[in-house]
Amino acid sequence: xxxxxxxxxxxxxxxxxxxxxxxxxxxxxxxxxxxxxxxxxxxxxxxxxxxxxxxxxxxxxxxxxxxxxxxxxxxxxxxxxxxxxxxxxxxxxxxxxxxxxxxxxxxxxxxxxxxxxxxxxxxxxxxxxxxxxxxxxxxxxxxxxxxxxxxxxxxxxxxxxxxxxxxxxxxxxxxxxxxxxxxxxxxxxxxxxxxxxxxxxxxxxxxxxxxxxxxxxxxxxxxxxxxxxxxxxxxxxxxxxxxxxxxxxxxxxxxxxxxxxxxxxxxxxxxxxxxxxxxxxxxxxxxxxxxxxxxxxxxxxxxxxxxxxxxxxxxxxxxxxxxxxxxxxxxxxxxxxxxxxxxxxxxxxxxxxxxxxxxxxxxxxxxxxxxxxxxxxxxxxxxxxxxxxxxxxxxxxxxxxxxx
Length: 404
Fold this sequence. Notes:
Elements: H1 8-14, E1 26-30, E2 33-36, E3 41-44, H2 47-50, H3 59-69, H4 82-94, E4 99-103, H5 106-124, E5 131-135, H6 144-149, E6 166-169, H7 174-178, E7 186-191, E8 194-195, E9 201-202, H8 205-217, E10 221-225, H9 239-243, E11 249-252, E12 263-267, H10 269-272, H11 288-301, H12 304-328, E13 331-337, E14 340-345, H13 353-362, E15 365-366, E16 368-369, E17 374-377, H14 385-403
Parallel strand pairs: 3-15, 5-6, 5-7, 7-10, 10-11
Antiparallel strand pairs: 1-2, 2-3, 4-12, 8-9, 11-12, 13-14, 14-17, 16-17
Helix pairs in contact: 3-11, 4-11, 12-14, 13-14
């Protein structure tokens, strides 16, 4: 079959206009390098928005995918499969979890988490206890339920009416939660340990510990959205382990599949019991191809030397970005954890994060934004130090051009 040549212009002709992709079309990736249609090379500090946890075309992941492709692709959940069971067992062994539900995306994992929280409270306390507390500037996905729980009104605009019973407190402000929570009505508190889309803003340990205590006092479940922070991103397998605060339900996606669509909701046996047969499902959830790849990711990322390496790479990247910020007066701080970092723009540069992204592309380095005021970095967890140095050199040239 002849493949017709494609261009960025074709996007506008055939795709729904809910995205505004850049002008380049990447066609090849290897490790932390990407090449476009014209053969231009880029150092990737974006990681597909914190997804390609082991870089592009990782030999181990490619091998797992090829091997499973010759066995079973899909069964649906009328039957189980070996890769799904192995992955679930590994996730339970490595975390607080005793039960796992598989889906395809972070939004779906969160949808399952929120439905489970309500179902659990409905079974144990009655229908009045259904309210969910989340936080302003939070992001939990794009389904109607998850954008409603998320704390960014722009994602809900035009899609109302939203599901009822959702309240938003202030992130890192325990008193604002205390004013909203009640034993009679609150079924869950939902929080990102580090707000990703909201600006790479870490929760304080005291805040998360306080949420745990408030949930315990009010018979509410604590839900951690670790779609972006999970699977080694912070230098721990999951961020809850870094904080020492254990949730009742945890969602994971992004890095879990290293680029292959897969997601998981983790919980305890007691809470999981509320999703009995027929109460929830996913046609592709637990797909053998996805679970085979994710198992290889977990096997690799959970190794102590890999997690230790995340910390070393984080320090190198953070120091480089801080130095650029000092030299050109563009960043007030670099915050985050592990290889989820946010360079916060100074007052003079506020609102211009996209300019840094675009200038970086011109110089051959891919970065992200987290809102209009933060440049976000989420590269491969095993990015070579030489690639970090090269990326920083390219990004400094990009910043220099902006400042000229």
